[in-house]
């Protein structure tokens, strides 16, 4: 951490502050110049509160040098983490595709889609039972009966199931029934929920918030890991920008950036990023080429009658065409597609 | 709602769609031009799913004409709503100031600050017992004992208390002990929490999310109102932009915009918007001049040692100076300061 | 400037870099810790290229401590700068209002509006002769004949004229005929134009770019000042964010921020920020309350038939009502309205 | 275009407006509902001014249905446009790479880099002679002598040269000496410059502005095309968002979006988007996979001593490695690499 002192601070005041830092076990280096003193702090600075130091009366500015995260930090864990669910593997050179409808609507629907995406090469089945909707008047998901249908589809196809948790009171149920627990973009900083899923034994798929930085995203993973669950998959799904043509702006740079900052696997959701089915394929291809470890794709057997997100869902036929291209591109990027 | 048909759609296909809309009780007007047909739908279109219609095979684009909210809509409720808590009143020409520390830290701290802000003219006391923090390693608030201290400060000063709920499992406790229940910016679209506070009898202070539009914000209020609680105060606290000098960018336009769209009262949090104590006063003045119904200000008796947000907290002395200016400006804007 | 060395850099490599900085006349302080060395550079670091230093093979990161601007920097020029044009004064406690139509359309129009805004208290007349339009098919302004009409309106009313320059080839004409030369938001980083207006003797009104930071904005002022023209007025006119209800998002924090960073006067354009005439008044009030030194307001005698920006223009009557409120608020903020 | 009338507008007022539109040669359809009338306008609406119509006293809102651009519109020109420069071809299935240093620094430098990038497979040479820099104290480019060196490098290697124009007064010189004229991101809405390059016979490489929408970007291309020059290449180079880890956020969705909206070729500049050399490769791969028609890459023989943008420049060796991957991926996406 670097501390810039206000111009004209007296030597004795600087000495007091330096002693304070040294008493906390930190090494402190001092740079004196005309009208400006800079302190360099080295040691375990993660627990130092940058805001508190910046409130010291003689401090002009504080700048962090080290990352504020430990468990998710690649510096302390250089090899890629791999998340394994049934036969599926995400990370460390393995690439898996998660596919399925936005929301579970009926037994026929979820089972038919599950069979279809399995035969096209998906390794996991997605489907929402509890849906976060902007309007209280929109379909809110089937709830628990939807979970039961997902379990039925799992039994029929063998595909592990991925579904979103929205309420900490549901943790026990999800721990029992679900294979991968999704935390949605709007809940990325719902810290009570993060602490709860941190106590679970199931892998957590953590979506990036609409306008959260890479560092905030990793800090939310750190919440889950600090609570005991190190099986975290990060999922880029587009950020909010001024551009309104697309539903969100897919930030492909997040893939190499997160890979450098963290050892956690990164997958991409091109369906939510685009918001339009015809843009899913180019964004999926871009994500693979940028180095992601998996995809999560919305597939619906009858998009015009989907209860939500029909406009961004692929038909099983279009998904099958996409998977042929995924199969060709993944090995070219040095990864193995698990199906 | 306006539906643009794809160029070249056959007349019979248009007729099928038109019949479908009319069967739902809507009036449909048809504009035929060279290579382009436009349908205008009039009636109760709030429950129509814009995404679903846009998936119809012959539809090019759908545009909403009416707002997707009812209970919060000024069109159906032209007079200002007023939220009353003890002697405090917010909205409809009444202006109240909420003040207090970011987090409750000790009995001495919260009681001293409460006395100070009361004597300067605050009508409500804020203080966090449960704190949403970006890092799992930061102080997370005192929890329930913090709530007890807030109640003690209320008893001593008579000021109603405002504090943040982060977990739906806390609803019963908050219903019993708290006067105004705050939903923080990061939870603005935590829909399970919204539904829960919608069942409470206490007023809800709903902060705008970091990157949520006016419409999304009102839709979150609509969640609370649809669940039965119409006592909602909206709070603008700055949005996320590319500018990094300020912690957030205060969006003063939100005040006249929300006033036009909704009858709900709007207050402003200049402390979180600025992120720097010296900027609180000009932003507070700007907010009043733009027409807000109240302020929520962070005040700490010892900012350099505050457990959080010290850098944006006013000392009681600075808060007192600010209140003198507030007292002068509020009546000039045609409002009455309640103290 | 602070230079963080890569972990494990050899002592001799650090010594070479330190010597290099000392040879450039800088004081260098060294902080050695376990696995991390930090260099603090003090002296004239404005001309150091942060990107170049960060390319040194053993450097991990470089952070700037001092601002990269000199002439616009309040540190080196603590008193407010005041720009004087005829009787109008902007800055240093003086507040002036600039008003007029988006574009000059005819002799009758510009002269009528000029008389109106003068009698309501405007100190300068604005009007566009050359208009930056998103579409090549929109009205591009009257051009040079428009300038002549502005001069005529000046002669009739005595109001100095403010108009936008878009082309460096026009500098001579503007130097001769115009009182305040406006550089528009889209040209804030048109560096060839900045250099050209930097050679002029007339005050420059520099609008903030749609998505430019405070520092970039001041750097553009620095371009003009470095070329010899220190009469620069900064104008906040709203930034681009995700919110689409307003044309732009007025950033009122820019006012106190710029006042702290620079000695230059800051005015606000609520018309372009709002994009809707009914929002001009609350934003204008907010800007004054936040401490700005002036306003620039679009006024048109017949907004529905304005050739551009009619929807955000006030009628002379509405402008007169606004000015009454401006007259009341400006002295309350400790400033003097010049009319 | 769709016009929503204010609730309660009288029938005769609606009739007057309808007649007005019909007099302009438009077909008007009317939808009457309880409390709401919608007009649908069909015909040549490109020249209608949406702002002006929205100012009509009884109009509540106006929504555009048709795109405001003609010459760049894929609807009126379904086949891909191809830009040909010497042997290089961009668009319509042909893919070319432009490479070279940020700025021309010396004869040795530009000629060495030109030879290197040519032998690795670049089809055009880039290099800045006039540089837009945020600070007036930074290196501003060599100017005209830099252009001479570029011409020398062209003569030695046969590579056509791409360089940026910043000043309309330079148009004649660029027309004579340069092969592809670049308009930089900061000048995307410098309309005087657009009009000037629209008169040139050379292809124009038009970079997207930092915070400009797809539609604004295409409108700037339309300026150039409307002035007579239809040889326009669009270049995505990252947009400004809240994320600060990367210099800009590469918007890969721009590629399929622009391809749908326009027939113009789209290339990508991963160097400016990333701002860090190690991120250039994954972003370049992502851009190709998303369907772009070419790349523009910064290459420098000695990045640590580059006069600008060294931190984002590849060495010739790294560029050669990148080109091997480009050569493998381009045909997989169904395009032909021209070298």
Task: Spell out the key features of this protein.
homotetramer, 339 residues, alpha/beta, Alpha-Beta Plaits, nine-stranded parallel beta sheet, four-stranded antiparallel beta sheet, 11 helices, 15 strands, 20% strand, DAHP_syn_2 (chains A, B, C, D), EC 2.5.1.54 (chains A, B, C, D), aldehyde-lyase activity (chains A, B, C, D)
Which shape of chain A, going by the Cα principal axes? elongated
Contiguous low-pLDDT stretches of chain A (5 residues minimum) are: none
SSE pattern of chain A, N- to C-terminal = EHEEHEEEEHEHEHEHEHEHEHHEHE
Q: Helicity of chain A, in percent? A: 25-40%
Individual helix count of chain A: 11
Q: Kindly report the average pLDDT value of chain A.
A: 94
The CATH architecture category of the largest domain in chain A equals: Alpha-Beta Barrel
Largest sheet geometry of chain A: 9 strands, parallel
Enzyme class (chains A, B, C, D): transferase
Keywords (chains A, B, C, D): Transferase
Domain DAHP synthase ferredoxin-like (chains A, B, C, D): 1-67
Domain DAHP synthetase I/KDSA (chains A, B, C, D): 87-326
């Amino acid at each position: 951490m670097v501390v810039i002192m206000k111009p004209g601070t007296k030597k004795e005041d600087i000495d007091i502050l330096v002693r304070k830092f040294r008493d906390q076990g930190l090494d402190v280096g001092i740079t004196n110049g005309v009208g400006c003193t800079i302190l360099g702090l080295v040691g375990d600075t993660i627990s130092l509160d940058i805001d508190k130091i910046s409130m010291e009366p003689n401090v002009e500015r504080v700048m962090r040098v080290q990352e504020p995260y430990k468990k998710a930090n690649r510096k302390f864990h250089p090899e890629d983490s791999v998340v394994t669910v049934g036969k599926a593997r995400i990370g460390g050179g393995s690439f898996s595709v998660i596919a399925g409808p936005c929301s579970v609507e009926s037994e026929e629907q979820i089972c038919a889609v599950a069979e279809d995406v399995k035969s096209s090469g998906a390794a996991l089945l997605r489907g929402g039972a509890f849906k976060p909707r902007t309007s209280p008047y929109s379909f809110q998901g089937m709830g628990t009966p939807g979970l039961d249908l997902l379990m039925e589809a799992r039994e029929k196809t063998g595909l592990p199931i991925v579904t979103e948790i929205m309420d900490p009171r549901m943790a026990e149920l999800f721990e029992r029934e679900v294979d991968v627990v999704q935390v949605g973009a709007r809940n990325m900083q719902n810290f009570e929920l993060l602490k709860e899923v941190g106590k679970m034994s199931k892998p957590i798929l953590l979506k990036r918030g609409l306008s959260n930085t890479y560092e905030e995203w990793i800090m939310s993973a750190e919440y889950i890991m600090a609570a005991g669950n190190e099986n975290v998959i990060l999922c880029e799904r587009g950020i909010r920008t001024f551009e309104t043509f697309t539903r969100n702006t897919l930030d492909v740079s997040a893939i190499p950036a997160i890979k450098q900052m963290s050892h956690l696997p990164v997958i991409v959701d091109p369906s939510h990023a685009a918001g339009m089915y015809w843009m899913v394929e180019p964004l999926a291809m871009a994500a693979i080429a940028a180095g992601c470890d998996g995809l999560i794709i919305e597939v619906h057997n009858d998009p015009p009658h989907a209860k939500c997100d029909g406009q961004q869902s692929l038909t099983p036929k279009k998904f099958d065409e996409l998977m042929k291209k995924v199969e060709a591109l993944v090995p070219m990027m040095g990864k193995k597609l698990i199906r």
